[in-house]
From TrEMBL, chains A, B, C, D:
Entry keyword annotation includes Disulfide bond: no
Source species, domain of life: Bacteria
Protein name per the record: TetR/AcrR family transcriptional regulator
Residues of the DNA-binding region: 36-55
Keywords recorded for this protein, A-Z: DNA-binding, Transcription, Transcription regulation
Location of the HTH tetR-type domain: 13-73
Length: 196, 196, 196, 196
DNA sequence: TCGTAATCGAGACGGTACGTCGAGTCTTAGG
DNA sequence: CCTAAGACTCGACGTACCGTCTCGATTACGA
């Protein structure tokens, strides 16, 4: 009578991979709105039930596909040159938001957040919080080395860095150019830097 | 044989108002996903065709409803105290994003931008560009008065101010508290201020 | 909020005919189990919604198709020769049960009766009761003419005539041959006949 | 490579009984349509595979359950009073068709016959033919005793007796009352009786 | 007595059809 | 011509069972 949760041990890895691949492909070809559970099932040669058994909605499928294909993601760079590191990292974020096949997928997922709290939680846990923390940590390490003023508000700094990126994303303004992003990094760092 | 465009002169103002009201009500009661053309038509006592004749999609309906109900919006404040003016303005933006009934509507519209370029254009024209320009102008006026360094990058400044707001919105992090927003304004202004 | 019933005046006769035709065709080609709402919709070039709007289930669709295609059905024959008339009529029933395309449809409908009281009511009203009554009336008319004993139980007689037919149908025994059916009629009539 | 047939010696009697019991229970509680292989398996604490290994379909499961629970069924009664014997037997048939838990099960099985020839064969072998033959034999024995005319068509007689019962069953008319059934028996016997 | 091979429970799998919902188009009648 | 009403096609939703198919774990048989 109770809906017993599925047993992950019995899960077919084959189907899982086919589903993730199909989801990404569809998103590439037809955009996020073209990704439907039905289409994923058809392309992956899989039953809809199998999808619903393991994921609550297509957003989660794409999220997992995205995570799998980007989890070899380099940790926050730490070359010693803070500005360059931040720049590199932020460039990565913009690239993720703007280049196929991950751009459309990530954007679609983000737009789903506004009516799906559970997906929001998952995205935060897997994507956003780690990156935010990594950025803060990178700044902290610079601060420990005395390259940033001791009382700098590092979380605010990170928001100032990422903020304009997402501002443009959210309103669908064109993304920052490389130079513009460099200026942004410089500008924010200048605020924090105790020593030039 | 050609689809003659509708004649705005013969348009029923009664229906128009009923539709806009129904859209806002539905958005308040059931959230953006609960707003469907079907539901609007039913509640407004209006034919679906009438809606489709005058608006391309539900996003435009809500946009118009929103515009109508907020176009008494005050222009960018200019009390002489720059920080206070910016703070007031940004508070308004956050309030728009977070308080019913306009919050859900505006958020829903924004999430639609990612798959509707025409809606994007309309939103930019009616909402975003005017406010962005107003903010830049307010800074320009301060600059002219010599209160900001002459070579300050004002557009970047506005992005730094609004950015964190939309960063949190886009990722559904909780909005900034009043204090936090004040700190944000202060921090950014400090970067630009030639004179303390 | 209330589910308003559809307006029959607005109904598309075109769709209705296409649906009935498709149902009969499918039943002919693939048997009753091959008739699905989905298949009917596909073949008729019609939306599933349209089917569900006008019929509660596929049984009703087939019933209507059947009724439409047999309602030119001759009334109970009355040639003056009672045995021949009964024989003719019963032959018709057997033919209805055994020859495509109506046989499979009728049989399928009948098998549905066992879990659908509303379909049962409809079938009784449209098919069974009229025929039963007609048969009783034919016997009554013979009785009035003094050809059947005045106290004969005519309803029982009709059950004795139709009974064996449905006995074989229900248990899927092969239907009666023509001779066998003639013997059946003779046998029953002999019981009732006051005058040889 | 070939599918080796299961070995009945190693069959789990425990599972078999649980399955049959579950099938009957489900049929009692939710009617024939509520009996699904899935539900049987769940209730019996048994794997679906186990069911499919031993039975071709749910119809066969119910048939076996029915047979097991009614095979203590008395043989055709032979008290010397023919009418009473026939009446008793036919009452039994009606009771089987109308009283839970066997009524719904039997009716469900019968309705399955129309699209399952193998089930038809099984039902005939286990249920129908034996009873039909028994009835004919009972009449033959009466005939041998000179109580029925020597040239009476006994098979037709049995069809006349059972026919009306199944006529009402097939069309879901209410079953005969006890008196009506008595009249039916008398009427048919009168046709056959050489001696009053 | 002990492998060993089949059956067992559990339940995931690819399918098919279900009945519902909303989108956007089209038709009809009335003003 | 606009409107209300709403029927239409289309496509996707999420669910229910089907019958097939692995899995280990259990169990009874024959070596």
């Amino acid at each position: 009578m109770s809906a017993t949760p599925p047993n992950p041990q019995r899960r077919s890895e084959r189907s899982r991979q086919a589903i993730l691949a199909a989801a990404i492909e569809l998103c590439t070809e037809k955009g996020y709105v073209g990704v439907t559970v039905e289409a994923i099932a058809a392309r992956a040669g899989v039953s809809k039930k199998t999808i619903y058994r393991w994921w609550p909605s297509k957003g989660f499928v794409l999220l997992e596909a995205l995570a799998q294909r980007t989890d070899s993601h380099a940790p926050f760079p730490d070359t010693g040159h803070l500005a360059a590191d931040l720049y590199a990292q932020m460039t990565g974020v913009v690239r993720l938001l703007t280049t196929p096949p991950f751009g459309p997928a990530y954007i679609g997922i983000l737009s789903e957040l506004h009516h799906d709290p559970e997906l929001t939680a998952a995205v935060h846990e897997q994507f956003i919080t780690p990156r935010f923390t990594a950025a803060v940590n990178r700044l902290k390490s610079a601060q420990r080395q005395g390259r940033l003023s001791a009382d700098a508000d590092l979380e605010l700094a990170v928001e100032l860095l990422y903020g304009p990126l997402y501002y443009r994303y959210a309103l669908r303004k064109p993304a920052h150019t490389a130079e513009r992003m460099a200026e942004l990094v410089d500008h924010v760092l200048r605020t924090l830097d105790c020593r030039p």
